């Protein structure tokens, strides 16, 4: 019994459930917009859609655990952080490395099957599979060789798109077979904040990534320019939310966004003062940074409820 519980715990750790919220919340937002703007909502389509999103994220996370094994193992030793260096399930021996890659492929195939059901049984629109494939292959090849987007200096941009515009637009599209222009505006702050999540999470991994030659964006920019980019994108994200009423988004979105804005400014202040060099503080900042992204999506959701 204990062995089975340990295996289950290992699978849960490998799947990183808390990190699924950054994809699910924008998907909920897109579904809500379809209901509020077009008075359309199908429970079955929503359930299949959410399941597809989760499977795509599982595929991405498991592939990352497999292909980032060496740098994640070093990161766990050099600079242990809850929000970086992978889940730690493989280095700890909870899950074997080959199994992580095998389950990544299985999750990817299951997501594709769901895409077929949505497009050809529920008739959600001719671009359903295309939208799903963009997210699935971007996530899968973020770490997977030989493409490995994370080492090409553009992986973070793909993440910003796939966790920003794509889930909101896809959720809206499979309900209505169209994409409303307001989604393009909302995607800016959501995409920028998730980009910043990835960028900040690369700080604890910096030494391990340098050792292994993992040329992600922070590796290419260096820490000083990385901080500058983080600050610029944080301000741009906040400006986009505060300007949302000009796109006829309910004005109350600003009130709901204020907590995330305060947290964002706090992170900026800590980063500019170099407090992120403290391991404990950096871990807290990484956690708060995810809260900013979730808070941004949640502000839009609450504004329309």
Top keywords for this entry?
single chain; 305 residues; Farnesyl Diphosphate Synthase
Percentage of residues in helical conformation: over 70%
Beta-strand content: under 5%
- Taking all residues together, what is the mean pLDDT? 91
Question: What is the number of E strands?
Answer: 0
Count of individual domains: 1
**H-E string:** HHHHHHHHHHHHHH
Low-confidence stretches: none
**What's the CATH architecture name?**
Orthogonal Bundle
Identify the overall geometry. Answer: globular
Descriptive account of the structure:
- By secondary structure, the chain is an all-alpha fold.
- It has one domain: Farnesyl Diphosphate Synthase (Orthogonal Bundle), CATH 1.10.600.
- The chain is built from 14 helices and no strands.
- It has helices at residues 2-15, 21-38, 43-67, 69-78, 97-121, 128-140, 155-162, 165-176, 182-201, 206-212, 217-221, 223-242, 253-272, 279-304.
- The longest helix has 26 residues, at 279-304.
Brief synopsis:
The longest helix has 26 residues, at 279-304.
Secondary-structure blueprint:
Layout: H1 2-15, H2 21-38, H3 43-67, H4 69-78, H5 97-121, H6 128-140, H7 155-162, H8 165-176, H9 182-201, H10 206-212, H11 217-221, H12 223-242, H13 253-272, H14 279-304
Helix pairs in contact: 2-3, 2-8, 2-14, 3-5, 3-6, 3-8, 4-10, 5-6, 6-7, 6-8, 7-9, 8-9, 9-12, 9-14, 12-13, 13-14
């Amino acid at each position: 019994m204990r062995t089975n519980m340990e295996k289950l715990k290992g699978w849960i750790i490998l799947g990183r459930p808390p990190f699924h919220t950054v994809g699910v919340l924008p998907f909920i937002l897109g579904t809500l917009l379809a209901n509020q703007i077009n008075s359309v909502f199908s429970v079955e389509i929503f359930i299949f859609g959410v399941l597809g999103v989760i499977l795509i994220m599982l595929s991405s996370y498991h592939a990352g655990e497999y292909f980032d094994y060496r740098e994640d193992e070093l990161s766990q030793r050099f600079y242990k952080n809850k929000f970086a260096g992978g889940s730690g399930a493989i280095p700890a021996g909870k899950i074997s490395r080959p199994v992580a890659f095998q389950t990544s492929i299985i999750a990817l195939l299951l997501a594709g099957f769901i895409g077929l059901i949505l497009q050809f049984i529920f008739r959600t629109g001719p671009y359903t599979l295309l939208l799903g494939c963009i997210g699935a292959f971007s996530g899968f090849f973020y770490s997977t060789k030989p493409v490995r987007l994370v080492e090409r200096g553009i992986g973070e941009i793909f993440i910003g798109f796939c966790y920003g515009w794509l889930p909101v637009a896809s959720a809206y599209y499979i309900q209505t077979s169209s994409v409303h222009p307001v989604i393009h505006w909302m995607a800016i702050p959501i995409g920028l904040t998730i980009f910043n999540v990835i960028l900040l999470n690369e700080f604890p991994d910096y030494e391990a990534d340098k050792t292994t030659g993992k040329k992600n964006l922070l590796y290419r920019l260096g820490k000083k320019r990385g901080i500058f980019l983080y600050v610029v994108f944080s301000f741009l994200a906040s400006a986009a939310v505060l300007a949302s009423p000009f796109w006829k988004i309910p004005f109350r979105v600003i009130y709901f966004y204020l907590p995330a804005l305060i947290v964002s400014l706090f992170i900026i202040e800590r980063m500019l003062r170099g407090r992120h060099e403290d391991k404990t503080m950096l871990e807290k900042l990484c956690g708060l940074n995810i809260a900013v992204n979730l808070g941004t999506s949640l502000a839009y959701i609450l504004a329309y409820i």
